[in-house]
Amino acid sequence: MLLxxxxxxxxxxxxxxxxxxxxxxxxxxxxxxxxxxxxxAPGQLGDGGYADGLLQxxxxxxxxxxxxSWTDTIDVHFISLxxxxxxxxxxxxxxxxxxxxxxxxxxxxxLLVLTxxxxxxxxxxxxxxxxxxxxxxxxxxxEAYTQRIADxxxxxxxxxxxxxxxxxxxxxxxxxxxxxxxxxxxEPGFFGEKPEIVLFRRFTAAQNYYCDGIEDIIRQQxxxxxxxxxxxxxxxxxxEDLNEETNVAYIQAAYTAxxxxxxxxxxxxxxxxxxxxxxxxxxxxxxxxxTPLYHYEVLMLDNSIYTxxxxxxxxxxxxxxxxxxxxxxxxxxxxxxxxxxxxxxVVHNLGEVVSEK
Length: 357
Description:
By secondary structure, the protein is α/β, with parallel strands linked by helices.
């Protein structure tokens, strides 16, 4: 088994964006090894949350006790570079060759795992290199979006989506808020006109397609009892700047958002923040919520419960990707179901609202 960082494996990844790799994709060799390539955005790894769970889950494929009869039949690689430009070039270099680096054969099947939905835009650069036995898995995408990507890029039954059912976890959070705001110990006017919930994300829904229904669940369960406002870092800086090598754009956007949130709650009273920042969870809480914390309760999504002393709901990337990949290996090319929804089991502890597999 080979778990190899793309920074070492794909040495051509630092070439210019307009460099076109030479296509060397002969037909798949029946009975040959399988390959998984997992793509991470710059800065996505390292916060102990969802993305790190995906990497650990895929890495577990090399453990004999996890894979049983599949041991030594699959190679797992990943791309995690310093800029989107390098990431996209490395992805093209990977797509252009299905040859095994050490064996005189090609991979029978390859699976490209895109860890965030916005990465599907990069498929325009690699679709021509993918063989009929190569497939794509899009994480955090709903069924309709997965179908649209399949149609847009001509992938047919080779495009798949996997998402997290956040209904129970967010429902538990809503129960906690309802109990809090209806408590006899809360003085009149403590929340202003009504409690405020601010959902803060890296991208707007139109740009990112989280498709987990968090906003809908809050509106359904709390209705007119609260005001729900959605902010995104991309509201304050161009979305493409959030993908670059430097994190200056993150910091600038987060400071702007922090000032916005502070002003928001000073005008409305005590409130609640749901921070769903995807790849920039690590360290961003200090910037985004750098103003006095007594204004709000914080719910962190996609992050390790050991990182922050706030309530957290962690999408369990480890269990989800390991199960999906094992199912994929048991299916022949193109027969894996289009979409799968993984339900989160919630630990009922309002001190730490945590979802676990």
